[in-house]
Every structure is written in C-alpha cells, then in structure tokens.
Amino acid sequence: MKSKFCFFMILCALLFVACDNDTDNMAQPQVMKITSTTDLETSLSACNLGDWVVVHGEGLDNVTSINVNGVELNIRDVFREANRITLQIPRELPEGEPTNKIRVNVADLVAETDLAVSIPDLIVTGLDNEWAVAGETVKVCGNNFDLYDVTADAGEVFFGDAKAEITETQATFVTVVVPNGVSNKSQIKVVSKKSTVIAPVLYRDDTNLFEGFEGGFGWAGTDNLVTDGSREGDIAPCNGKYFYMNEVLHANWYIFIANAVMWPKEMWENPENWCMKFEMFTQKPFSGNYFQFDQTHYLWKPEEHGVTNTHGKWQTMVLEMTDVLFEGYTQNPEAAFLFQISLHGGNAETVDIGLDNFRLYRKN
Questions:
Q1: What tens digit of pLDDT does each residue of 152-200 get?
Q2: Whole-angstrom Cα distance, residue 303 to residue 308?
Q3: How far, in Å, CA of 101 to CA of 94, rounded?
Q4: Most buried of 69, 94, 224, 232 (most Cβ within 10 A)?
Q5: Helix (H, G, I), strand (E, B), or coil: what is residue 309?
Q6: Where in the chain do CATH 2.60.120 domains reside?
Q7: How far apart are CA 255 and CA 340, in angstroms?
C-alpha cells in the first residue's frame, strides 16, 4: 500500500513538471499588425464595431483569450492560425473605459497593439406616431438602442416626467407604451447606462398646426368625410376629428381639402429649415394613388417614400418644405396660402385613408 502511494506521488510530480515545462516552452505571442480581411497588406489603425479584421503575428495558434477594446471575445468565435487570427470587432460597449487595443493571451504571456475602435452615439430621431394617445404603443426611432441596452431591464424612456414601459428593443427603435397624464409638447428622453439623449421632437406638438379638421373645408365640399371616430369601421382618432376617406375613387382628380391658411413668415424666407408633418393611416395598400398640392403642383407619392400600408395605425409623415414648395414656389408671406390637396391616379378601387394634424415644423 505504501509503495502504491509513493508511486502516485512520483507520477503527480512528473506531470506537474511536464505541464510547467509546456508553459515554459510556449513562445511569447507577437502581434505585428492589424489589417482588414480584404487587404492583408495595409495596416489598420482604426475600425468600427462589427468590422472583421485580421491580427497578424507569431505564436497565435495557442491563444487562450482575446480582448478587444475592453470586451472579452468568445475564443470559439475567432479563426486561429499560427501567424494570424481573424475576428469580428464585437458590437458591444466595454463595461469600463475603452482601451482602444487588441490584447491576445497565451497562458500568462500577453501581446497587444493599438486599434482605435469607433463607438457610435445613441441616436434618437423621434416617434413613428408623434400623436399617439395614452396606452398606445409607439416606436421611439433612431439607432443603436440595442448597443446601449435601452431595454426594460437596463434603460428608460420618459415622456416629460412620466416613465414609459419598454416592450421591445431593436437596433433602430424601442417600442414603448405611452404613459398616462402626458401633456402636449412634452419632451422625450431616452436614458441608458452610458448615455442620455433628448429627442429632437416633442410629443403632440401643436405649434403651427394649421389643419386639424375641426372646421369646414370651404369649396371642397368634403365635410362629410370628417369623423370623430364614432362611426362603424372608424379608426380611433389621434386628436379629435380627422379626415377619413373610404370609398371607390373613380375620378382621376378628387379635391378633398381646400382652405386658406397663414404660414409663418420665417418659413417663406427659409423653407430649407422647415418641414410639413401630418398623421396618416391606411387600411388598404396604395395602388398608384398620389397627392397633389394644387397650389404648388408638388406630387407626393407615398409608395416612393416607403409608405404602402400602415394597417390601420396612425403614423407621422414628414415632407420637406423645399419639396412642397415645388420648383421654388413662393408668394407674399403676408397673404393666405391656398392649402388645397387633391388625390390622383391609381385604379378604380377603394381608397381607405385617414389624415390629421397638418402642421409646419421648424427643424433647427
């Protein structure tokens, strides 16, 4: 029994020495340069999140860990060879300060080199429906919400002082439930651990709202197409009464809005700083229909702007005033503007659209 124990101790000692010798025999890893995967000759000094790069050097096939800009990589996600490692810059923010380095480890041996990793900002552009009512879901639009972890667990979205419930997070939007008791013109704020961003638009901003469908339409004769949402088949309103057309359009030219309105003098002087906004819903796809602003002859074709069918959900549309004022249209800013819109084109089939809250918005 004693001899067996002695044999076991000797074997353990030999294994320990062998392992120690293996560590001693490992070559110090060397990092010579970083390149792209498409140009293996030109060195890179900077890159973006998500880029694929190649680490060139020596003794890289035994790498046990890799750290990029303060973020540890899963070693199984890289491609290792003796003289190069191919890896993707992780789309992830470091917990601490960015290191702007790539560091490779072989056991206790370390090699590193500088690589400036560009980290994009958290971007908030607005809401997909600026006039969503309390209790409705709305998308806060922008970019990098996933990168900044704007989630129900780690992020916050505020309408004024009221916190909204986050229900979904994607790279380009966060879906939230509009909280109760939010006032018109409330600020929208997105908060993450790394950043706080104020949206460039306000919630339910009625500044320069010139057509809300609360009155008549003069010579257009389409007052019967205005509803408060109480009729059968109506979509719930976003702001009182709204225009709703649900009928077969036989004519190629149908005037449905015709009112005289006053627009700000500043808009006429610098239309490039302004846009027109309104809310719209559709319950059927557009079939080639387009809107004409009769006074300026501007044609707005929703399909060319990615709008085919909102499936009954109100969405905010944005038109540049330099487009609406077609070919540089201008007039005396002290005079009323003929705001007349007609519907053109398309097949002789049912047009199902709702419109509300035509307003001018100063961009900067």
A1: 999 999 999 999 999 999 999 999 999 999 999 999 999 999 999 999 9
A2: 5
A3: 12
A4: 69
A5: coil
A6: 209-362
A7: 7
